[in-house]
Specification:
Number of strands of chain A: 4
Radius of gyration of chain B: 23 Å
CATH architecture of chain B: Orthogonal Bundle
Structural class of chain A: mainly alpha
CATH class of chain B: Mainly Alpha
Distance between the termini of chain A: 39 Å
Largest interface: A-B, 53 and 65 residues
Oligomer: heterodimer
Mean pLDDT of chain A: 85
Number of domains of chain B: 1
Distance between the termini of chain B: 41 Å
Strand order of the largest sheet of chain B: 1-2
Number of domains of chain A: 1
Strand order of the largest sheet of chain A: 1-4
Order of helices and strands of chain A: HHHHHHHEHEEHHHHEHHH
Mean pLDDT of chain B: 86
Chain lengths: 335, 349
């Protein structure tokens, strides 16, 4: 193959090899997260066969749903080269507001919550895009504001859904293939995002910003509007995550389920092949990133790692997986 | 070029006045900005002090001043390390984990309620050694494997916490038994809390490192432009590892002091500190992209947040609101700082 190429065009002989290397790297980026998830699953299955037979996969999928939603939102923001540290706080605030609103508003409540959280995300985006402030610092600030808002609205206690709880709880209790609908909602959202990124002008524009923002501006990409969109998508995803939290737990509290999802969600986005410096994202592999993140604690207890060591294992696994799946080249600058 | 023009006695037909005027104004504005930014912070701090002392007459007392200094000490120590890392353009999220690991190591090697005489000074050496190792691993994975510092230190946060949890085991909380150590951090020497003396020493050393040592200068150069720093033959690799190691040792020191202050050993001894330290560094005006900023600015940032928290509590504001106030100040500070640099073609990450 390479011989014929060199015969045909000796002066461009290096090009196909380079292109093949690039394709190889892309292929690994695309399947790396899947391979790692399956490899870990196989190891767990060999060590504890009962885990897979006893519905272990369904447990992983169910517990990964909020992480996956937040990771998808985060990957949209990471893709434009920013970061959203406030999305988990938005999800929690959304869950608390939903618990409060389900009684009076019934079926309208989830829609209102989605609108509100999308608006929160959009405000983040507007500030980043129009004031040109670093998103890390800005969303760290809004994280504090959203946290305080959850504390104040919940009165520092657990807010239980008073009535109409079945509107959202059915999402968790009914399922397809034994896996709750909440997970499938997240998967559908991932597919929609994939279509957006792959086939639309908007998606290509978002990735263009992440690859080189100045170039995107000069190419008449509407960078500001698209940045706002990326953050709004993150807020929207956080809103769905809030709904999932209520569906799963039936209640929300500032310290309960969902209060520590920020870092696992970022880890899931990165394990799913999203570049932290922007310009590379694949929502479909983020699904496996989230599954991997959800698998680590479940798997480590399944194979008998003592509970005290779990956070250590978690840390090591995150570093190792990102080190394995990351794309790097010799001259690149890593911050 | 200019000389040749003189010999030819024929001036070039380009008028450079506009360029020179612009350069001049940029230079002047930069000088003004570098002086005005810390000044703005100082004014904000003074306004806070005045407002809080009007709201509560217990605020402006010697006792409360010493309180604030004690409260600021540990964030100050950790923030010096965080500033160094951010000057590189990287980030260190592992501080809470490293604090937990070092604090737990230290208390288990010191006389505590779980038994054992303690090994005195060696406990400090070993605990700081644990922190140093965590920092070196951070730096080496970051530089050698080219994993972004965000991920490495995020993982190391969990690793540090896990290490502390394993050490902690399933027993009761280890409690300090040496009466000379309990409450040492808030005891006064020459009118200032002991912990604050340690913080002062760390700040002085930190400033000296940034100003006068190769590590500090190279770190700034790397933060400004790693490509240029590397092509100038500067040891970017080694300096990055060194900076992460220094930051971890300072986090470890903070962890030990926090353990003394808490009186018991807990893996979560540093809980919540990261979200004080990074906002403090950013409010101080150190650029998250690296290369710009300094330790003295961070000191101002830490004091601003500490005074704010202390004053809010004394003014009877519900503690639920505190993170919102800190958050709002952070947002205002960065919007204010970025205002003059806005540009149609500007790029902010």
């Amino acid at each position: 193959m390479s011989a014929t190429v060199t015969e045909a065009s000796p002066e461009t002989g290096a090009a196909p090899r380079a292109r093949r290397a690039v394709i190889g790297r892309h292929a690994w980026q695309a399947i790396g997260p899947i391979v790692i998830f399956i490899a870990m699953l196989v190891v767990v299955a060999i060590l504890t066969p009962a885990f897979i037979g006893g519905g272990g996969l369904a447990i992983i999928a169910a517990s990964s749903a909020p992480i996956l939603l937040l990771a998808l939102g985060q990957s949209m923001v990471l893709n434009v080269g920013s970061i959203d540290l406030s999305n988990a706080a938005i999800a929690l605030l959304g869950a608390i507001l939903l618990a409060l609103a389900l009684g009076p508003l019934a079926a309208g409540a989830p829609i209102v919550i989605l609108l509100v959280t999308t608006l929160f995300g959009a405000v983040n985006g507007l500030l980043v895009a129009y004031f040109q402030v670093p998103s890390f610092a800005l969303t760290l600030g809004t994280l504090g504001i959203f946290q305080a808002a959850s504390l104040v609205t919940s009165g520092r206690t657990t807010v239980y859904v008073s009535n109409n709880g079945q509107i959202v709880s059915t999402l968790y209790q009914s399922g397809i293939a034994n896996v709750p609908i909440t997970f499938w909602i997240a998967v559908v959202f991932a597919v929609l995002l994939w279509i957006l990124m792959r086939y639309t002008r908007i998606g290509r524009g978002l990735t263009a910003i992440g690859k080189n923002e100045s170039a995107a501006i000069f190419s008449a990409v509407r960078t500001r509007a698209l940045k706002v969109l990326a953050f709004a998508l993150s807020g929207f995803a956080a809103g769905i995550a809030g709904i999932v939290i209520i569906a799963q737990a039936g209640s929300a509290s500032p310290t309960g389920l969902g209060s520590d999802l920020l870092l696992p969600a970022i880890a899931a986005a990165l394990i799913g092949g999203t570049s932290i410096s922007g310009g590379v994202v694949n929502p479909l592999t983020v699904i496996f990133g989230a599954l991997t993140v959800a698998l680590v604690p479940i798997a480590s207890s399944a194979i008998g790692i003592p509970t005290q060591a779990q956070s250590l294992v978690y840390g090591v696994v995150i570093i190792a997986i990102v080190a394995l799946t990351m794309s790097r080249n010799k001259s690149s600058i890593v911050k | 070029m200019a000389q040749r023009n003189q010999t030819l006695d024929r001036p070039v037909g380009i008028d450079t006045t506009a360029i020179r005027v612009r350069e001049h104004s940029i230079e002047r504005r930069a000088r003004f900005r570098s002086a005005s930014e810390p000044l703005g912070l100082l004014i904000a701090l003074v306004i806070l002090l005045i407002v809080f002392s009007l709201l509560n007459d217990r605020f402006l007392t010697v006792g409360n001043a010493q309180n604030i200094l004690t409260q600021a000490s540990i964030p100050l120590i950790v923030a010096v390390g965080a500033t160094l890392v951010i000057l590189l353009g990287s980030i260190d999220l592992s501080v809470e984990g490293v604090m937990g690991a070092a604090g737990m190591t230290w208390i288990l090697l010191t006389a505590n309620s779980r038994g054992g005489e303690g090994i005195g000074l060696w406990a400090w050496v070993i605990a700081l050694g644990v922190a140093l190792v965590l920092g070196l691993v951070n730096g080496l994975i970051f530089t050698a494997l080219k994993v972004p510092s965000f991920i490495v230190t995020l993982g190391m946060w969990y690793v540090g916490l896990g290490f502390a949890t394993i050490l902690y085991g399933r027993d009761l909380f280890p409690r300090l038994t040496d009466p000379a150590l309990t409450g040492w951090t808030s005891k006064l020497t020459l009118g200032l809390p002991n912990a604050f003396w340690v913080a002062l020493l760390v700040i002085a050393l930190g400033i000296a490192v940034v100003r006068y040592t190769r590590v500090g200068r190279v770190a700034l150069a790397v933060g400004n432009s790693e490509t240029i720093a590397r092509s100038a033959g500067l040891p970017a690799f080694r300096v990055k590892v060194a900076v992460f190691a220094i930051a971890a040792v300072l986090s470890g020191l903070g962890g030990i002091l926090a353990t003394i202050q808490l009186d018991i050993g807990s893996p979560n001894v540093g809980s919540g500190l990261l979200f004080v330290v990074i906002p403090a560094v950013v409010i101080g005006g150190t650029n998250l992209g690296g290369g710009k900023g300094g330790i003295l600015r961070t000191v101002l940032g830490v004091f601003l947040l500490t005074v704010l928290n202390n004053g809010l509590i004394l003014s009877g504001v519900d503690t639920s609101w505190q993170s919102a106030v800190s958050g709002a100040i952070l947002v205002t500070a960065i919007v204010f700082a970025a205002w003059s640099q806005r540009d149609r073609l500007g790029v902010a990450k």
